[in-house]
Inverse folding.
C-alpha cells in the first residue's frame, strides 16, 4: 500500500486574536451554506453529548464528519511557526484540511498504564501531532475541552528532533525507509503476540525470523512519510523504550510495535496483534 503523504498547513502573517474564542455551532459562511445545511438538517444525526466525555469518541466523529469538524474548530485558528504568529480562516482551512486523510493513527508511549489515559474522562487537553518523518518537522494540533465541548484551539509548527520522542523518531524514519537498516534493527527472532479480541481464548506467542517478518510485512501500509500521533499526556521520558501503537478509527484495529534501545541501538523486539 502506498505511503501516506503529507500536506503542510500554512500560517498567514496577521494580527493574533483570542485563541479560545468559541465559535457559534450553527454559524455559516454564507446564505448558500446555511441553506445547504438546513436542507440536510433532518438527515444528519448529531453526535450525543456523551461523545465529549472521551477524546477518542469526539475525535472519531471529528475525523468522519467534515461539517462537524468545522463546527469544532475555533476560527480563526491561531497558529505559530517559531516566532512567526498567524491565523487560519475557515475558508483557508477547507483547502488544506489536514484531517481529511486516512483512518489510521498512532500513539507513542512507554508504559502500558499510560493507555488508561485513553479512557480517562478527566483529560481536558490532547495534542495530535502530524509528524513529517523525512523532514524532521511536525504540526501540533492542540485540542481543548472548553465549556464541556472538545475544540481544536490552536496549532503550531516545530522541529521534532529535539522533542522527547526525537531520538526514537530519527531511528524510526530510517527504519521504515531503508529495508537493509530495518533488517539490522530486528531482534532475532522477533516475538509475536496474538491477543484474542473476545478474551475467551488464551494469548498466543510465537517467534519469527527476519525473513518471516518481511514476508508478513509485504503488502502492509508503509508509513514512511507521515505519522499522526495522539498525545494524551502519556509519559515521554525514557530514551530506551518506546511502544508504537497503531489504531484504526472506529474499526477496532490495534497493533503494538515494541522497541528497546540496546547499546545505543534501537531494536524492534515484539509485535502484538
Amino acid at each position: 500500500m502506498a505511503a501516506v503523504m503529507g500536506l503542510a498547513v500554512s500560517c498567514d502573517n496577521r494580527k493574533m486574536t483570542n485563541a479560545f474564542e468559541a465559535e457559534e455551532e450553527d454559524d455559516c459562511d454564507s446564505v448558500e451554506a446555511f441553506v445547504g445545511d438546513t436542507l440536510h438538517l433532518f438527515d444528519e444525526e448529531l453526535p450525543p453529548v456523551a461523545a465529549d466525555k472521551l477524546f477518542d469518541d469526539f475525535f472519531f466523529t471529528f475525523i468522519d464528519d467534515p461539517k462537524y469538524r468545522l463546527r469544532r474548530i475555533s476560527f480563526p485558528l491561531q497558529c505559530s511557526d517559531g516566532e512567526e504568529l498567524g491565523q487560519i480562516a475557515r475558508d483557508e482551512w477547507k483547502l488544506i484540511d489536514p484531517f481529511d486523510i486516512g483512518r489510521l493513527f498512532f500513539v507513542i508511549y512507554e508504559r502500558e498504564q499510560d493507555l488508561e489515559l485513553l479512557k480517562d474522562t478527566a483529560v481536558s487537553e490532547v495534542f495530535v501531532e502530524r509528524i513529517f518523518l523525512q523532514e524532521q518537522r511536525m504540526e501540533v494540533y492542540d485540542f481543548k475541552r472548553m465549556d464541556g465541548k472538545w475544540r481544536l484551539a490552536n496549532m503550531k509548527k516545530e522541529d521534532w528532533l529535539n522533542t522527547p520522542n526525537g531520538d526514537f523518531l530519527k531511528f524510526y524514519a530510517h527504519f521504515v525507509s531503508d529495508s537493509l537498516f530495518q533488517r539490522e534493527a530486528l531482534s532475532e527472532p522477533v516475538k509475536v503476540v496474538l491477543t484474542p479480541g473476545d478474551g475467551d481464548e488464551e494469548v498466543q506467542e510465537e517467534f519469527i525470523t527476519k525473513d518471516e517478518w518481511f514476508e508478513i510485512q509485504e503488502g502492509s501500509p508503509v508509513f514512511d512519510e507521515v505519522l499522526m500521533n495522539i498525545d494524551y499526556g502519556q509519559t515521554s521520558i525514557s530514551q530506551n523504550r518506546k511502544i508504537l501503537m497503531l489504531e484504526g478509527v472506529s474499526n477496532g484495529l490495534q497493533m503494538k510495535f515494541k522497541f528497546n534501545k540496546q547499546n545505543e541501538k534501537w531494536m524492534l523486539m515484539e509485535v502484538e496483534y
